[in-house]
Design brief:
386 residues; outer membrane lipoprotein receptor (LolB), chain A; Protein Transport Mog1p, Chain A; 2 domains; 8-stranded antiparallel sheet; 5 helices; 12% helix; globular; LolA/LolB/LppX; Outer membrane lipoprotein carrier protein LolA; lipoprotein; Sporulation_related
């Protein structure tokens, strides 16, 4: 969702090429028929999901590269504009919980052992299946690939062959759609979506991509699907965890800039410079302002993948960093972000600012390469970076 509200799901790619030719149909649970062209299927599924009043579902996400598989399993319940998203299994063993209704969102932060409460973003649906479906369909060049029975379920298949991912990353308690994936060696990526022909719901999506000599397979499955069920009110009871501090936050003011010069004019403090790979160019910037500070993010892209460089007002104290490396002679922490599988980040503090560089590790960048990018940022106010 990628994340939970943070859009923990990596978005897969491309929509809307209708195959020419005759139209066949598969039955649906309301007695109507599901056509065999991609545009009509996407519209039918989107309408179906948007009209769901309640459901329970288990979502399983896995990424396999080489001999390594990382898996996240979560339970999602929705009823009448309220949702509960609970992580049941993560590589790090943590189990964050997200709750939301029409006005308020709660997040149990397992790392800090606090509940964060803030006004809900009214522009985003509380129906998380709507957001999942949008992320699957918000692309070009989708084709219809016929039908298949998987695990006793009749499905239709859509596919596309380009690749793009945007991961919503929580940085210093703030939210920004930032970064992704690998370097310019990425290629030969394809995505396939299986849609339950009776229920008109996506039940599986699989992306296979080549990174250099490594093949990476990312799979999302929806299981234990129950539609139109009564969900107990206690599932939505707030706060999601009793006996821990509650931190009240305001919804951040997020502004997007399409040029680095525009971002620099509106940034809080100077804009840092990072030595990103030569194939990357500035794509866009984000300024996220909250009562307790401002985050400025630079997003670079090589046309396929994105890389984020972040500067924020301090959210950590010097002794909150668990140092396992150094940046510009300062203690720094490299950590893996379990919700985003192999993604990692380096964070460190210089004077009145906190810095992050984030990228996939072991798939796109090694830990050492990520630390090198961090080192190129260093402590700008002390080294004279612009």
């Amino acid at each position: 969702m990628t994340a939970p509200d943070r859009r923990v799901l990596a978005t897969v790619l491309v929509v809307a090429l209708v195959l020419a030719g005759a139209v066949a149909f598969l039955g649906s649970d309301d007695g109507s028929e599901l056509p065999n062209n991609s545009t009509a299927i996407q519209q039918t599924v989107s309408d179906r999901v948007a009209n769901l009043e309640s459901y329970r579902v288990t979502m399983v996400q896995s990424v396999t590269y080489g001999d390594t598989t990382q898996r996240v399993r979560m339970r999602l319940a929705y009823e009448s504009g309220r949702y509960n998203l609970t992580y049941l299994e993560t590589p790090a063993g943590r189990q964050p919980i997200f709750l939301a209704n029409q006005t308020t969102q709660w997040y149990y932060d397992t790392g800090e052992d606090v509940v964060r409460r803030r006004p809900r973003n009214q522009s985003r649906s509380t129906n998380l299946l709507v957001r999942i479906t949008e992320s699957l369909f918000d692309h070009r060049n989708v084709t219809y690939d016929g039908s298949e029975t998987i695990e006793g379920t009749e499905t239709v298949q859509l596919s596309y062959s380009q690749y793009d991912r945007t991961i919503s990353l929580a940085v210093g308690g703030k939210e920004a759609s930032l970064l992704t994936a690998p370097d310019s060696e990425i290629g030969n990526a394809s995505t396939r979506i299986w849609i339950d022909a009776q229920r008109r719901l996506p039940v599986r999506a699989r992306t296979t991509a080549t990174h250099g000599n490594e093949t990476v397979v990312r799979t999302v499955r929806l299981t234990n699907v129950s539609l139109g069920v009564d969900v107990p009110d206690e599932r939505f009871a707030a706060p999601p965890v009793e006996g821990v501090p509650i931190v009240t936050e305001q919804h951040p003011d997020v502004t997007r800039y399409h040029t680095r010069a525009a971002l620099a004019r509106n940034a809080s403090g100077s804009l840092v410079t990072a030595a990103v790979p030569d194939s990357f160019e500035f794509s866009y910037g984000l300024r996220v302002h909250e009562a307790n500070g401002t985050t400025v993010s630079q997003v670079y892209s090589d046309g396929i993948s994105r890389l984020g460089v972040i500067r924020t007002d301090p959210q950590i104290t010097d002794d909150a960093v668990d140092p396992n490396t150094t940046v510009a002679g300062r203690p720094a922490e490299f950590e893996r972000q379990y919700v985003h599988y192999g993604h990692g980040r380096v964070r460190w503090r210089c004077g009145d600012d906190e810095y992050f560089v984030s990228a996939p590790v072991d798939v796109a960048l090694s830990k050492e390469q990520l630390i090198e990018v961090a080192a190129s940022v260093g402590c700008p106010d002390e080294t004279g970076s612009d």
